[in-house]
Write a structure and sequence with these properties.
Blueprint (H helix, E strand, L loop, with lengths): L1 H29 L3 H13 L3 H13 L7 H13 L3 H13 L8 H13 L3 H13 L7 H13 L3 H13 L7 H13 L3 H12 L6 H27 L1 H10 L4 H21 L4 H26 L3 H20 L1
Helix pairs in contact: 1-2, 2-3, 3-4, 4-5, 5-6, 6-7, 7-8, 8-9, 9-10, 10-11, 12-14, 12-15, 13-14, 13-15, 15-16
Length: 329
């Protein structure tokens, strides 16, 4: 038992030391101190640390902290890849795919390394394999296998894979045709800003494919219309707050009470202002419109209740504009 414990303890201790040293090099690299990073990582790489091997490969490939050297980069990528570093596997696959950094183009080797990386969950490799099987590049064309790789990448949130998977479900390529599933994947891709997914999703809704267009449109516009109405009412009262005070004073009621009524007037309006989900563009449209309506009606009220008509316009404009502006700021 003692003979078994000692090697395990040594291995764990070695891993902890490697991890601490690697982090030191990573901090130096992030701070732009590439010379220190190389000094820390090189001994680790020579002792078999796959992460350090990968980073040294990157440094030689790009020429950061060391003279650019493709041959040395490939050497360290290969060391890291053979130890199971998925990112290094993907880099080797890319090198063989395009025949760069001194290696001949080799589709078979590219597929080998991409597959090994993809099997470890490396999303770029999964997406690459999906494209390869979809187009028959270096492998037999197989939509079913392509869809399976796209699915794995899509489930990790990769927008391009989500888009491709959505299109495959829409066309029934490699998977059963299912517009609802297509809409699901196109939607999550579109929400990440994928323009192709946004376009495809719009076309599907226009053709009434996937989730019922009429239901979604009705809900969308009913919600938006209701919010416009609530906003219009709230803003009307918000803009009209001077009227409450003016009329009360004109009737001889004391000022503090008038202010209290005005505050009660504002509370629901301010809640609507902060809870609204209308866009800035929509607010820029609705606020001036509501202001004009409120101004017109308030003018009529002031003329009706006030004998000092020569001052009401200035008072009204100041009251209607200043306080709402302070709320929005």
């Amino acid at each position: 038992m003692k003979n078994l414990f000692l090697p395990i303890a040594i291995a764990l201790l070695t891993n902890l030391v490697f991890a601490a040293d690697y982090a030191t090099g990573e901090d130096a690299f992030d701070e732009g101190d590439h010379e220190t990073a190389l000094k820390v990582w090189l001994p680790l790489a020579e002792q078999g640390d796959a992460r350090a091997q990968h980073m040294i490969a990157l440094m030689y490939r790009v020429g950061v902290g060391v003279p650019q050297n493709d041959k040395t980069a490939v050497k360290w990528y290969t060391f890291a890849a053979k130890q199971g570093d998925a990112a290094a596997m993907y880099q080797l696959g890319s090198i063989y795919e395009f025949g760069i950094v001194g290696l001949p183009q080799n589709e078979k080797a590219a597929v080998k390394w991409f597959t090994l990386a993809a099997e470890q969950g490396y999303v770029l490799a999964q997406y690459n394999l999906g494209n390869r099987y979809a187009d028959g590049i270096g492998v037999p064309e197989d939509d079913k296998t392509a869809a399976s790789w796209f699915t794995l990448a899509a489930e990790q949130g990769y927008a391009l894979a989500q888009y491709n998977l959505g299109i495959m479900h829409a066309k029934g390529e490699g998977v059963p045709e299912n517009y609802n599933t297509a809409v699901k994947w196109l939607t999550v891709a579109a929400e990440q800003g994928n323009a192709s997914a946004q376009t495809a999703l719009g076309l599907m809704y226009a053709d009434d494919r996937g989730a019922p267009e009429s239901d979604k449109t009705t809900v969308k516009w009913d919600t938006l219309t209701m919010e416009y109405v609530v906003w219009a009412i709230a803003l009307f009262f918000l803009f009209s707050w001077p009227i409450v005070i003016w009329i009360k004073i004109e009737r001889g009621e004391y000022y503090p009470r008038s202010m209290g009524i005005a505050v009660l007037w504002w509370i629901p309006e301010m809640w609507v202002v902060y809870q609204s989900s209308l866009s800035t563009y929509q607010l820029l449209w609705i606020m001036p419109t509501t202001f004009l309506v409120a101004f017109t009606l308030d003018t009529i009220l002031l003329v009706r209740y006030s004998g000092r008509n020569h001052t009401f316009v200035i008072w009204l404009l100041v009251g209607m504009l200043v306080f709402p502006t302070l709320i929005f700021l």
